[in-house]
Write a structure and sequence with these properties.
Blueprint lengths: L1 H16 L23 E10 L2 H35 L4 H17 L5 E11 L4 E11 H14 L5 H22 L1
Antiparallel strand pairs: 1-3, 2-3
Helix pairs in contact: 2-3, 4-5
Length: 181
């Protein structure tokens, strides 16, 4: 009798080790440090599902680019706030506003140096559904150089603001180039 109870207990322990109260863990493509932003790259991944493969791809594409745009916007805000806080600029709020406007304009145009680093498509016959995964990256130094060009041609930025924005971007370029070495 003890052997039966011991065997049943062992069986219960072993069967519980294979499952989780959350369900089975799923490994999706484009996960891990190779697909996360770092000092040199902004990176974003997206997933799209649909019964039409082109719609699934479009959804994944939009999600990945939205993630990238959010990262760039957040980084630019942090960079501007940090720089303007350190320099005690008398018109800091105005410069920060122009810098944010510039970064949004850049993101609304073609994203500079956008590279697709992966795409995978799956078809589930049972559900008649496509699932597409896409991963993009942008080199930070290319993004900052593009922003510098855009700032120089922007007529709404006066000379003084232009100098501050150029300094901010030059500092970020130095950081990105240093990390690339």
């Amino acid at each position: 009798m003890k052997k039966i109870i011991w065997c049943l207990s062992l069986l219960a322990v072993l069967s519980s080790c294979g499952s989780s109260p959350f369900g089975q863990k799923v490994k999706e493509p484009f996960r891990g440090s190779a697909y996360e932003s770092n000092n040199r790259f902004f990176r974003g991944t997206g997933k799209g599902e649909s019964s039409a493969d082109n719609i699934a791809r479009g959804k994944a594409d939009i999600e990945a680019k939205t993630i990238l745009a959010g990262q760039v916007n957040t980084t630019m805000k942090q960079v501007a706030d940090q720089y303007l806080g350190q320099t005690q600029n008398d018109r800091a709020a105005d410069v920060a506003d122009k810098f944010q406007t510039l970064s949004r304009e850049v993101m609304n145009t073609n994203i500079a140096d956008l590279r697709k680093i992966g795409e995978q498509k799956y078809f589930n016959k049972k559900e008649n559904k496509y699932t597409v995964f896409i991963a993009y990256e942008i080199k930070k130094n290319a993004m900052f150089r593009f922003m510098k060009k855009q700032a120089k041609t922007n007529q709404q930025i006066d000379e003084r603001q232009q100098e501050v924005i150029q300094k901010i971007l030059d500092e970020e370029l130095k950081k990105a180039d240093k990390e690339g070495d």
